[in-house]
Amino acid sequence: MSRPIAILGGTGPAGMGLALRWARAGQSIIIGSRNAERAQEAAAKIRQRVDQNADISGATNAAACAATDLMALTVPFEGQAGLLKELKPSFRPGSILIDATVPLASAVGGRASRTLGVWQGSAAQQTAELVPKGVKVVAAFQNCSADSMNGDDPVECDVIVCSDDPDATQLVCELAAKIPGLRAIDGGKLENARIVEQLTALLIGLNIRHKGHGGIRITGLPSSAYRSAG
């Protein structure tokens, strides 16, 4: 059985997209939500699209967090800090937390095509301050269109993975590469997440303007820089 991935706040479009794609790749998935019943309903929907025997379950965020040492955080920025503070007792020592949060201005009633200033530098760095010591935070998946992730076609996008832990970066690159169409690139230290997060606001503006679901592609690097399923 594959290492379970708990998707915290996983009933929204971003979380459901990751759950669908990883479930198709054979990963064991636990969808987390404030409401266990809602999480179980979301798991059933994913199972219908993948395989009724797929290892997908639903639980409260706290139970999902406590059940594994590999998690993805997919809540809107306005709910990030509150959820992490609530989950602090549930983290296992040495856990890896993939943070896909973007501090969009829509969190305070502004435009989704703009980002907020975060005191720590980025949403991912804020996460690193809020989780228990020893939890490894990896910023990734901010630039993937939720519409594309929830679809059936390959996702034409590069995932820039930022972390201060090389082993955690490697693991998340491997997970990203399990999704058809995605390529993973080591983006360096966690502090670089602030740049990646800002790209999301740009992409939202472009997608609104051109009525699309665009992502990003990084070109010109040696083939060794990219990790993909191909």
How many E-type strands? Answer: 9
* Gyration radius from CA atoms, angstroms: 16 Å
Low-confidence stretches: none
Anisotropy-based shape:
globular
Lateral strand order in the biggest sheet: 3-2-1-4-5-6-7-8-9
Number of domains: 1
Task: Describe the structure in your own words.
Helix 1 (13-24) crosses helix 2 (36-50) and helix 4 (77-87) runs parallel beside helix 5. The radius of gyration is 16 Å and the shape is globular. The model has no long low-confidence stretch (mean pLDDT 95). The protein starts with a strand and ends with a strand. Helix content is 37%, strand content 18%. It has 230 residues and is an alpha/beta fold. It has helices spanning 13-24, 36-50, 61-66, 77-87, 123-130, 146-149, 166-177, 193-210, and strands at residues 5-8, 29-33, 56-60, 70-73, 96-99, 136-139, 157-163, 182-186, 226-228. Helix 5 (123-130) links the parallel strand 5 (96-99) and strand 6 (136-139). It has a single domain (5-228), classed as Rossmann fold. The protein has a 9-stranded mixed β-sheet with strand order 3-2-1-4-5-6-7-8-9, sandwiched between helices.
What layout of secondary structure does this protein have?
Layout: E1 5-8, H1 13-24, E2 29-33, H2 36-50, E3 56-60, H3 61-66, E4 70-73, H4 77-87, E5 96-99, H5 123-130, E6 136-139, H6 146-149, E7 157-163, H7 166-177, E8 182-186, H8 193-210, E9 226-228
Parallel strand pairs: 1-2, 1-4, 2-3, 4-5, 5-6, 7-8
Antiparallel strand pairs: 6-7, 8-9
Helix pairs in contact: 1-2, 4-5
